[in-house]
Amino acid sequence: xxxxxxxxxxxxxxxxxxxxxxxxxxxxxxxxxxxxxxxxxxxxxxxxxxxxxxxxxxxxxxxxxxxxxxxxxxxxxxxxxxxxxxxxxxxxxxxxxxxxxxxxxxxxxxxxxxxxxxxxxxxxxxxxxxx
Length: 131
Hints:
This protein is an alpha+beta fold. The chain has helices spanning 24-41, 80-93; strands at 45-49, 70-75, 100-105, 112-118, 124-130. Strand 3 and strand 4 (112-118) form a beta hairpin.
C-alpha cells in the first residue's frame, strides 16, 4: 500500500510485524514526515525498523515503535549525525512534527549506525545509545 510518493506500508512492516488497521493513521503521518525529510535531503531513506509488536520490541516498554509512530532510518551518502541535524532543523522550522530524535550506535558501539525519529507530539532527544 502506497503511503506517500516514496514510501510504502511494507517498508514499515516485517513478515511477523503487520501494522494493525487502527495504527495505520500513525504510520501514514510518520511516512508523510519522512517524505518531507526525503524531499529536503534529495536522497532515498532506508527504514531499518518501523512498526514493532510487543514480541519483537527489544527497546523501551513504551516504545513509539509499538504505536506505529517511530522509524529507525539511514540515508545513503550521509552520516547519521548529519541526518539527525537536518531533522532537528526541520522540527524547529515546523516542517516536521515534533517528536523523539536519537542516534544509535551499531552493535560494536564504535560508530553511530542510524537515526530514530518519532511523532510522539513532544520533543525528546538522546544520542549514541547502543542498540
